[in-house]
Specification:
CATH class of one domain: Alpha Beta
Mean pLDDT: 78
Oligomer: single chain
Strand content: 15-25%
Helix content: 40-55%
Structural class: alpha/beta
CATH architecture of one domain: 2-Layer Sandwich
Distance between the termini: 79 Å
Low-confidence stretches: 1-8, 211-224, 226-248
CATH topology of one domain: Translation Initiation Factor IF3
Order of helices and strands: EEHEEHEHEHEEHHH
Number of strands: 8
Number of helices: 7
Length: 248
């Protein structure tokens, strides 16, 4: 028995997907055969099915190994693989991937910074992402949750033309958060714009769009909210600064 640490063969689990059996790799004695034109040839011996495929210059491909007997089809395997990959790419391209972006603020974030955060949230929503708006408490700020709720309500009001509330403001430890999602009209617009870009690329002789290089996608680093504008006030006085603002 070979040991993994002694220079012997190292055994590993094969992570590849199920392999399609074709031609002489099909080792069952008989198969149900579908001809190249889609007609059903019934159950044939595997040897007879192979001869039939060879006579027309095509391959015998197992399309349903779980059948009794397994189902095989006579076709061009190279073209079959190409079409399968093409369909998989098309399905992946049409998938709508929705991410959750986060916008952070504080109960004492001023109006100017609120407007900046609204602009960032709108960019996320217009790109088809959900937005979680988080108001974080420090020190005795947590004794005034109504201030945080007012901040969140203000942001949500300024986004109501683009977003629906998916989760109303709730307390999470020392934060209060609300989750908003793009309205259906946003996804419809994105799909329309993408279809138009693909038509334009086809006219130019280019391939389909790659999501990773979609020119309409924003760089997250430019939009992510680092909350620096809110931390400066606390760094000056720490917890004591918060207490100094609390009423006597």
């Amino acid at each position: 028995m070979a040991l993994a640490g002694g220079g012997g063969r190292r055994f590993s689990r094969d992570t590849r997907g199920p392999q399609i059996r074709i031609n002489h790799r099909i080792r069952v004695p008989e198969v149900r055969v579908v001809d190249a034109d889609g007609s059903n040839l019934g159950v044939l011996s595997t040897e007879a099915a192979l001869r039939r495929a060879q006579e027309v210059g095509l391959d015998l491909v197992e399309v349903n190994p779980k059948g009794t007997p397994p189902v095989c089809k006579i076709l061009d395997f190279g073209k079959y693989k190409y079409e399968e990959k093409k369909r998989a790419r098309e399905a992946k391209r049409k998938q709508t991937i929705v991410e959750v972006k986060e916008i952070k603020l504080r109960p004492k974030t001023d109006d100017h910074d609120i407007d900046t955060k609204v602009r960032a949230a709108r960019k996320f929503l217009e790109a088809g992402n959900k937005v979680k708006i988080v108001c974080r408490f420090r020190g005795r700020e947590i004794t005034h949750p109504e201030r945080a709720r007012m901040q969140l309500d203000t942001l949500v009001q300024k986004l109501e033309d683009l977003a629906n509330i998916e989760q109303r403001p709730i307390m999470e430890a020392r934060t209060m958060a609300v989750l908003v999602a793009p309205k259906p009209v946003v996804f419809q617009r994105l799909a329309s714009e993408r279809a138009q870009r693909e038509r334009d690329r086809s006219k130019d002789g280019k391939g389909p769009l790659d999501d990773e290089h979609d020119e309409n996608l924003e760089d997250d680093e430019d939009l992510e909210d680092d909350d620096d504008d809110d931390d400066d006030d606390d760094d000056e006085g720490g917890e004591g600064g918060d207490e100094a603002e609390a009423p006597n």
